[in-house]
Please model this.
Amino acid sequence: MAEAIIKLEGAAIRQQKNTILKDVNLEIEQGEFVYLIGRVGSGKSSLLKTLYAELPLEYGKGQVAGFSLNRIKKSQTALLRRKCGIVFQDFKLLTDRNVNGNLEFVLRATGWRKKQAIRERIKEVLEKVGLPDKGEKFPHQLSGGEQQRIVLARALLNAPPLIIADEPTGNIDPETSFQLMELLKDICAGGKTIVISTHQYDLIKNFPGRVFRCEDGSVKEDFSFAPQQEDVNITQSGELEIGTENRDEPTDTDTHPEECDGKEPKEVKEETEISENIPEEPEEETREKQEDNKTDGDPNDLIKFELI
Model:
């Protein structure tokens, strides 16, 4: 069995003294591809922020990349974040410098000093994300998809074993989303662990992985996508696509796949209906929505907070 890179036991995910998720038990092994799904305000972003210690773990136990979340010192958070490549939905690129400058800023902030080594590492990650010729471009000169690839390149700079991506496809078009997911799958195949929060269930259908759902103040593994994932695994031969040749009878998905893309499965819709079990503090969801939607301030401070 592979070693667990993320492990939470009886954890309470809290935001400004409000409990968002309680009794969270989660174990993710090294090299896994994992989705985190749930309605807006269900606690996905708060859970991810807890994993890289932006939010403290006050109750329960947690281990991420060898660091104890409930015992971690402030001086150790920068070391933890060098083990976690973070991909933001809204990019958070520095607008006053080009791509090379953005990447160099992060490397120097994390201890790189030799100019030649910095240049070579920047070249490596840009080639990895398929943008070797964009180093001199400024963020405003790039498309949304290109900016997101640069953000992924930034996350890969220090070769972290864990990539945490919070809605990475939220601001890019469907075709570019698929290209980004193919890249993330390729990175995962190289041994890295990928954890993605998303609302796009068609991505799960086409790029299988374990699925965890945040709902009603708890986190549970969701197996409703498993049959679709089996179809993908059976029919893929070099390229990721949904096939029909192993099915006994054609279905609506077989004959009109384009009508099904982007729509969540019926089982998922049933699961996301409002439960009769109202959480003890229903106003927490409103607070979480505000947390998810607020702007995080100066991007220079954010990158420093993440990596320095």
Summary: Confidence is low (pLDDT under 50) at residues 228-297. The longest strand covers residues 4-15. The domain at 30-54+79-307 is CATH 3.40.50.300 (Rossmann fold). Strands lie at 4-15, 18-29, 33-37, 59-64, 67-68, 84-87, 162-166, 193-197, 210-215, 218-221.
